[in-house]
Amino acid sequence: MLRAAGAAAGAVGIGTAVTPAPAVAAGAYAHPGLLHTRADLGRMAAKVRAGAAPQTAGFARLTANRHARSDWTANPQATVVRGGTGQNYGILYNDIHAAYQNALRGHVSEDGAHLDTAVAILNAWSARLTALAGNADRFLAAGLYGYQMANAAELVRDHPDFALGRFQEMLSTVFAPLSDSFLVRHNDAVVTNYWPNWDLAAMCCVLATGIFCDDKAQVGRAVEYFKHGAGLGSIRNAIPVVRDDGLAEWLEAGRDQGHALLGVGLMGTFCEMAWNQGLDLYGHDDSRFLKGAQYVAKWAMGGEVPFTANTREKGAVNGWSGSETVTEAAPVDPAMTRPIWAMIANHYTGRRGLPATYLTRIAAKSAPEGGGGDYGPNSGGYDQLGFGTLTFTRDRVAGVGAGVDGSGGPSAAGAGGSAMPSTAGSAARPQAGATASPSPSLSASASAGDLAATGSNDVLGWTAATGITALAGGLLLLRRRERVRVRGESQ
Questions:
Q1: Per DSSP, what are the bridge partners of residue 325?
Q2: How high does pLDDT run on average in the chain?
Q3: How far is CA 436 from the centre of its chain?
Q4: Nearest-CA neighbor of 57 among 372, 328, 367?
Q5: What is the pLDDT of residues 332-366, one digit of tens each?
Q6: Which terminus of the chain is more exposed, N or C, with fewer CB under 10 A?
Q7: d(CA 44, CA 268)
Q8: Taking each helix axis from N to C terminus, what angle separates 137-154 and 112-128, rounded to the nearest 10 degrees?
Q9: Which residue, among 383, 311, 326, 365, has the nearest Cα to 90 in the 3D structure?
Q10: Residues 469, 463 contacting (CB under 8 angstroms)
Q11: Number of C-beta neighbours around residue 224 at 10 A
């Protein structure tokens, strides 16, 4: 199991003036209600019509993307393979992003041709796709593409030509079962074998498909796992250490920058979809996600951050076993980016009125955010739907952000990186952990039988929005350090 030490979180209240719509409490799911609500779509369209900044710059990135063209033609497959031989999953993620981008463009521009294209793409896939295959990476395919397909379809679910029932059946039989299985069995590996982003992808799929299919039990499982799951994707395992300065250490910062950004983006996606159904997971556990996202934002911009050494057990159940210790945060390239920051920053600063210095800075640096196809040709550039500058930029809500003591909320200090008082003291305490899986780029330790060696490494080759490659841009990458000790790689 993961062994890590963490300082107790400070008992600081958060602003409560803004709450999510109580859709779940009322016993029904709101549609559209995944990453974007009907009100969100109306806001985007109004801002673009008015020529408002920065939404118009965000819309320009959307219309410039080749996936957003109304002449896109789907290429559905009966079986999609990710991992091993015969891989064809690039076909799927390109079509998903074309469906999402056309649906989004159609709503903002009120051009029905783009909505028709999105429907045609999604209908083609639901008419043909029957299976996901491959090695352990098939679970990544289920998680990432399941939540994305649900989001694209949610934008056109009321279109008269959309085959809603058939699409729900595809999500329920092809995508959700693999993600549900992963959260329960972890591919028959020990529970800490896979890093947080594996769990988080599966969690996003289970939540998104549950909402899309109006499956309350499925949504309940996803939310419970976020709060208390055994794997490394649950919030206290992904963010095991909360410090007195108001920042919280992100576990996967000990792996590499690309996968840490992936995890933060996925947790933000999970929280946003839950928020739109009346569940405030952004604020869960004294806004623990805010503190973790602030930590990653500071680190990703080249700032020095602490990192508490942790050891995770890995291997197969009743098979080979080993362990790995990570002692410090990985080097970073400040030019590397993902389209994840506008969503998170706008929740905490826009909806909640909380200061969040690092999030604000990195969101501004990454703007205007693009989407799939704008961040390199490999799968890592398609892990988020993107376009957050357009979709999530909102006016700050007046009169929110004060904590229960009127101090301005938990991030009045922590979000800005200055000292934040804690009533819990500064002594470190151990905290139970859960799942994991490192990439071969961490060390030469990944043996042929190491389940942790699976997963895409193309994040290391992404291009930043500036066109500077991740491996060429940052002087910080020149800091070569021995960070990992590995024992018992195989039987």
A1: 311, 485
A2: 82
A3: 16
A4: 367
A5: 999 999 999 999 999 999 999 999 999 999 999 99
A6: C
A7: 20
A8: 140
A9: 383
A10: yes
A11: 11
- What are phi and psi for residue 200, nearest 5 degrees? -65, -35
Beta bridge partners of 67: none
If residue 298 lies in a helix (H) or strand (E), which one and from where to where?
A: helix 284-300
Q: pTM higher than 0.90, yes or no?
A: no
Q: Which helix (H) or strand (E) holds 178?
A: helix 176-185
Start-to-end Cα distance in the chain: 18
Cα–Cα distance list, 2 to 106, 194, 229, 320 (Å) = 46, 11, 13, 17
Residues 6+ apart with CB under 8 A from 46: none
Cβ(199)–Cβ(179) below 8 Å: no
Find residue 123's DSSP bridge partners.
none
d(CA 354, CA 176): 35
Q: What percent of the chain has pLDDT over 70?
A: 76
Closest CA to 458 of 181, 259, 221: 259
The tokens describing 357, both together, are 């210095």
Which residues are bridge partners to 133 per DSSP? 81
Closest CA to 103 of 61, 152, 137, 48: 152
Peptide bond into 32 cis (omega under 30): yes
Distance in angstroms (rounded) separating the CA atoms of residues 410 and 287: 7
Please write the tens of the pLDDT for every residue from 100-109. 999 999 999 9
Residue linked to tokens 């352990």? 136
Secondary structure (DSSP) of 418-467:
S----TT-S-EEEEE-------GGG-TT--TT-GGG-S--GGGGPBPTTS
Q: What is the pLDDT of residues 202-237, one digit of tens each?
A: 999 999 999 999 999 999 999 999 999 999 999 999
Residue type, 123: N
Angle at 271 between CA 298 and CA 353, to 5 degrees: 65
Q: Check whether the bond before 54 is cis (ω within 30° of 0).
A: yes
Look up residue 129 and give its DSSP letter: -
* Residue whose C-alpha is closest to residue 135's, from 491, 490, 452: 452
